[in-house]
Write a structure and sequence with these properties.
Layout lengths: L2 H36 L9 E8 L2 E8 L2 E6 L3 E2 L2 H13 L2 E6 L15 E7 L2 E10 L5 E6 L5 E7 H4 L4 H4 L12 E7 L4 E7 L6 E6 L3 E2 L2 H12 L5 E3 L2 H11 L4 E7 L2 E9 L6 E5 L6 E5 H7 L3 H4 L14 E6 L2 E8 L2 E4 L2 E5 L2 H13 L4 E4 L15 E6 L5 E11 L2 E6 L2 E7 L2 H4 L4 H5 L8
Antiparallel strand pairs: 1-2, 1-6, 2-3, 3-4, 5-9, 6-7, 7-8, 8-9, 10-11, 10-15, 11-12, 12-13, 14-18, 15-16, 16-17, 17-18, 19-20, 19-24, 20-21, 21-22, 23-27, 24-25, 25-26, 26-27
């Protein structure tokens, strides 16, 4: 390698090092400065120890204690973490469009002599305060002024994002704070009955069982849905004054339902009331010391579950793969579908192999059939329902002919069919479309729609 080439390489290397060590850090720093300058308030959400908001609606003070947000003004109460996070995120993303007045000598022209909103953030590094005034003449975004600078700034903040913030925005709205995954017991007291449910097992294998007023399996999706709805129950308004609370509570009368849940070792209770004087109003009460929460009437009614709502509604207590034989009685015919390995046979005839996919679907529908409505738990006469002489009967058996369950069907009314099943005592109504999927014996025997190809 010649000296000239070596010299060029050294020059190139030196230039590269200069760019890497000097120019690039300087450019990066310049971009950081520009980005910071564009921010209305420069902070990280985790650095915020508290903040105050002063507006025409009063002063709100919120602090962070042990990782939780608590309101201090206008009165001590738990804050809504979601609302606080959204507020801080709005401020954090707010940018400066441009400086409209470098000296800030005429604050009145921008609505900053008496700000619509003053926000002070208490950070680990100190306090940052920004005042928000009127909207710009050609936009809905607000003028602002930082306390550490005389400049009047036009921001990207829309007035509706911040100016109307009130105590209602920041206070906790969840009526009953709890973690549904840690709930192990439920007690629901209604006008007619008291229902007790216990969770058995852990994790994905956990199942809910009804222990009172009867011992039976619970409808797992229904119980989970109840816990979801209860955890998500939010107040629309509050009655804080103790005297108003007591007076309103007395006027509400008896509760629609009272729900007590066991979270770890702690019991939490909420009672729901329908307002007899206001057709759209309902209320929730935890304790007389907490506010009386106004909620939607639909939410209150949805949480008022009865035994039928929460119990398992399958008329046969079995799983599809347990069924080895399905006896069908319909239209004056009786025949049996029996499982032999992966095949289904008609009346045990090895030559009469059926469409396995169709029969598997039928068996699944039979054991998954659920009651839609309860008619009566203790029927004295089955004739009115057409169940004294059923139109169809399905009997499921397992290994060695062990009876798994039985369903009989009666007449149809209002789009549903009356039925009785071995898994639940009483007369119920079910969807009648399952009756249309039951094949006739001669259809199967002659290679009709139900016969395998």
């Amino acid at each position: 390698m010649s000296r000239a080439v070596l010299a060029l390489l050294l020059v190139a290397l030196g230039l590269g090092l200069y760019l890497w060590l000097v120019e690039m850090p300087a450019e990066h720093k310049r971009l950081q400065v520009e980005t910071t300058a564009k921010k209305l308030v420069d902070f990280k959400e985790d650095d915020v120890q508290g903040f105050t908001i002063i507006s025409a609606q009063g002063e709100i003070a919120v602090i962070r204690e042990d990782g939780r947000w608590t309101m201090r003004k206008p009165k001590p109460m738990e804050a809504d973490a979601t609302a606080v996070d959204e507020f801080l995120r709005t401020l954090m993303l707010a940018q400066v469009s441009r400086a409209v007045d470098e000296t800030g000598t005429d604050l009145k022209a921008y609505g900053l002599d008496t700000p619509r909103l003053t926000v002070s953030l208490r950070l680990g590094s100190g306090t940052q305060t920004v005042r928000l005034g009127d909207a710009g003449p050609l936009s809905t975004t607000l003028y602002a002024k930082r306390d550490d600078s005389p400049k009047v700034l036009l921001t990207t903040l829309a007035g509706r994002d911040l100016v109307m913030k009130s105590i209602q925005e920041f206070r906790r709205k969840r009526v009953l704070p709890f973690d549904r995954l840690r709930v192990t017991r439920l007690k629901i007291v209604g006008p007619q009955e008291t229902i007790a449910l216990y969770r058995e097992g852990q994790g994905e294998k956990a199942v809910w069982k009804i222990k009172a007023p009867i011992e039976t399996a619970a409808d797992q999706p229904e119980v989970r849905s109840l816990l979801f709805a209860l955890e998500d129950l939010k107040a629309q308004d509050f009655i804080d004054d103790p005297k108003e609370h007591a007076a309103k509570r007395a006027a509400l009368g008896k509760s629609l339902t009272t729900i007590t849940l066991r979270e770890d070792e702690t019991d939490r209770t909420v009672s729901l009331f329908l307002d007899p004087r206001e057709s759209a109003a309902a209320y929730a009460e935890n304790t007389p010391q907490e506010p009386l929460y106004q909620i939607t009437r639909a939410a209150a009614k949805d949480l008022a579950k009865g035994l039928f709502d929460l119990r398992a509604k399958q008329l046969i207590a079995a799983e599809p793969d347990q069924v080895k034989t399905l006896v069908i009685k319909t239209g004056g015919q009786e025949y049996a579908l029996s499982r032999e390995g992966a095949d289904w046979l008609l009346d045990g005839d090895p030559k009469a192999k059926l469409d396995a996919a169709r029969i598997n679907m039928l068996v699944t529908r039979v054991v998954r059939l659920q009651a839609e409505k309860i008619v009566t738990e203790r029927p004295t006469d089955l004739k009115p329902y057409g169940l004294a002489s059923p139109t169809s009967e399905l009997v499921a058996a397992g290994e060695q002919g062990k009876l798994l369950g039985r369903i009989i069907f009666g007449r149809q009314a209002q789009g549903l069919a009356y039925a009785m099943g071995s898994a639940m005592a009483g007369v119920f109504q079910v969807r009648p479309d399952i009756l249309q999927s039951i094949p006739k014996k001669d259809e199967l025997a002659t290679g009709g729609p139900g016969r395998g190809k």
